[in-house]
UniProtKB/TrEMBL annotation:
It is an enzyme of class 2 (transferase). The keyword Transmembrane does not apply. GO terms for molecular function: ATP binding; phosphorelay sensor kinase activity. It catalyses: ATP + protein L-histidine = ADP + protein N-phospho-L-histidine. Keywords: ATP-binding, Nucleotide-binding, Phosphoprotein. It comes from the Bacteria. Residues 1-214 form the Histidine kinase domain. Its EC number is 2.7.13.3. It comes from Alteromonas australica. This is histidine kinase.
Length: 214
């Protein structure tokens, strides 16, 4: 049943994208409505995948499939899948990633993580987003920054909670944070595990999300 729902959502999202491509560029109101529907369908799809993954992991660990991934291609795919929403919000996205940078990770899970972070940045940002990736201290660092109002104190506090302290009653924001931490922690090398961090400021003065993968 869950896979049927995922397939139906995928077909719905494809249909929305096809519809958007057929709308005349001067029909601003219709294009905005289609972009909003696309955003909601994508968010629903993300939530479904998150809940399914949590069920599979039993709130403890997440099985991953690691392979070499070119990070610039991964980020281009994430940005491309949100093209309609990017155009509707009129936000400029700067990608700062070496085209040759590659890392061993679960590309599907990291895609979901970055996609969720980008959608939030698009929703709360004003006009600019920077997505950067680099290797620091034997870790892959992927950072998403926006020029919005930044994370509220309550969200910054939640980002420091351990996985065992997580409660489903925290709602979608808590679920997204937990899912991001679960994905990061599932990537490990020896005693080193991946981690996420949330802060405010950065180059654009808004929210800064960072994931570090060993």
């Amino acid at each position: 049943a869950v896979h049927d729902m995922k397939n139906s959502l995928f077909l719905l999202i494809q249909s929305i994208e096809n519809l958007a491509g057929e709308l005349p560029s001067d029909n601003v109101e219709a294009r905005e409505q289609v972009a909003n529907v696309h955003y909601e369908a994508s968010r629903l799809n993300t939530n479904l995948v998150q809940i399914l993954s949590l069920y599979r992991s039993e709130l403890e660990s997440l099985p991953i499939t690691v392979d070499e991934c070119f990070i610039a291609d991964l980020i281009d795919d994430v940005v491309g899948s949100n093209r309609l929403y990017v155009e509707q919000k009129k936000i400029g996205i700067t990608i700062q990633v070496d085209s040759e940078l590659s890392w061993y990770l679960d590309s599907e899970l990291i895609y979901l993580l970055i996609n969720d972070v980008l959608v939030n940045a698009l929703r709360y940002g004003t006009s600019k987003i920077i997505i950067s990736a680099s290797v620091q201290n034997a870790h892959l660092n992927i950072k998403v920054e926006d020029d919005g109002a930044g994370y509220p104190p309550s969200m910054l506090e939640k980002s420091h909670e351990s996985l065992s302290e997580f409660q489903l009653s925290q709602g979608r924001t808590g679920l997204g944070l937990f899912f991001a931490r679960l994905i990061a922690a599932a990537h490990s090398q020896g005693e080193n595990s991946g981690e996420i961090s949330l802060s405010n400021g950065g180059d654009l003065g808004g929210s800064v999300f960072e994931v570090k993968i060993p």
